[in-house]
Amino acid sequence: MHGFQLTFFTQQSRKHDGLPLGEWLLQEAHKLGIRGATLMTATQGFGHDGNLHSAHFFELSDQSIEITMALSQADIELMFTRLREEEINVFFVKTPIEYGMSGEI
User: Fold this and answer.
1) Could you tell me the pTM of the whole model?
2) Which domain holds residue 6?
């Protein structure tokens, strides 16, 4: 199948609707019927503001978070419609991909 890899980048401290934004994105993807998403935490990262974000032993709120999904064009449209409805502004990378299950090759 052909579609897109959609990856969001944020920090653990960002919240939406009472949840960390990464968790909210996972839950919304699930509610929209998207077939899979992965949330990964990073040791360090920096964004457009140039500030270094990292996980500290006692404080994880500044930890960098990445949420990755493999989506069809229809799923991409559902996800971005939902982000617009919720007025969420989050950095993303959208890359064309081919995807499937190895048993189907």
Assistant:
1) 0.82
2) 2-99
Give the dihedral sign, CA 25/4/79/33. negative
Tell me, yes or no, whether 105 lies in a domain.
no
Strand partners, 67: 8, 39
The position carrying tokens 């990073």 is 42
Q: Is residue 14 classed as helix, strand or coil in its secondary structure?
A: coil
Q: Domain containing 41 — which CATH number?
A: 3.30.70.120
What's the number of domains the chain is made of?
A: 1
Q: Supply 71's token pair.
A: 């989506």
The answer to whether 53 and 64 have CB atoms below 8 angstroms apart is yes
What's the mean pLDDT in 51-59? 55
